[in-house]
């Protein structure tokens, strides 16, 4: 399923959520964030707002667009798990977000076939170290 929304000075946020009773797995992938017709030459900052493992709200900027130098940003299908809110933290837009929504039913056999790597083949990633102050 395709997803699209527009953030403006009057509509500063858009929340994508799924029915809590739905037992399917949902993935939202953000592909492109771009300024659209009528945008001013100002910084437009788009944030993704979600919840961390302690259920605290966190906001992460994913795009800083300006008409004269960077009107479009490809996010290469940046994957998110709903519910998620997109917020125009700075600027007046309009900013268009485009991506796709994938629904994987748990009883669907193709869900398990997507993982082609065995545990032995998976690359082990180093732990994330805290930033130095």
Summarize the structure.
3% of the residues lie in helices and 48% in strands.
According to DSSP, the number of beta strands is 8
What overall geometry do the principal axes of the alpha carbons give? globular
Beta content comes to: over 45%
CATH superfamily: Nucleoplasmin core domain
CATH architecture: Sandwich
Largest sheet: 4 strands, antiparallel
What's the number of helices?
A: 1
Low-confidence residue ranges: none
Q: Helix amount, in percent?
A: under 10%
Integer count of domains = 1
Overall structural class, as computed from helix and strand content, comes to: mainly beta
Q: What is the end-to-end distance? A: 43 Å
Look up the CATH topology.
Jelly Rolls
List keywords for this structure.
single chain; 133 residues; mainly beta; Jelly Rolls; four-stranded antiparallel beta sheet; 3% helix; Nucleoplasmin-3; acetylation; histone binding; chaperone; Nucleoplasmin_core_dom_sf
Detailed description of the structure:
This protein has 133 residues and is mainly beta. 3% of the residues lie in helices and 48% in strands. It has one domain: Jelly Rolls (Sandwich). It has one helix and eight strands. The strands form two sheets. Strands 1-8-3-6 form a four-stranded antiparallel β-sheet, with no helix packed on it. A four-stranded antiparallel β-sheet has the order 2-7-4-5, with no helix packed on it. Strand 4 and strand 5 form a beta hairpin. Pfam families: Nucleoplasmin. Belongs to the nucleoplasmin family. Keywords: Acetylation, Chaperone, Methylation, Nucleus, Phosphoprotein.
């Amino acid at each position: 399923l395709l997803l699209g929304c527009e953030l403006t000075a009057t509509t500063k946020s858009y929340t994508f959520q799924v029915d809590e009773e739905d037992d399917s797995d949902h993935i939202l992938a953000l592909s492109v964030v771009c300024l659209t017709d009528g945008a001013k030459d100002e910084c437009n900052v788009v944030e993704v707002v979600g919840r961390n493992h302690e259920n605290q709200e966190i906001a992460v900027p994913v795009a800083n667009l300006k008409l004269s130098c960077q009107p479009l940003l490809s996010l290469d299908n940046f994957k998110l798990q709903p519910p998620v809110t997109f917020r125009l933290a700075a600027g007046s837009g309009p900013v268009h977000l485009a991506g796709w929504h994938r629904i994987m039913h748990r009883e669907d056999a193709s869900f398990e076939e997507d993982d082609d790597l065995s545990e032995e083949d998976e690359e082990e990633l180093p732990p994330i170290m805290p930033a130095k102050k």
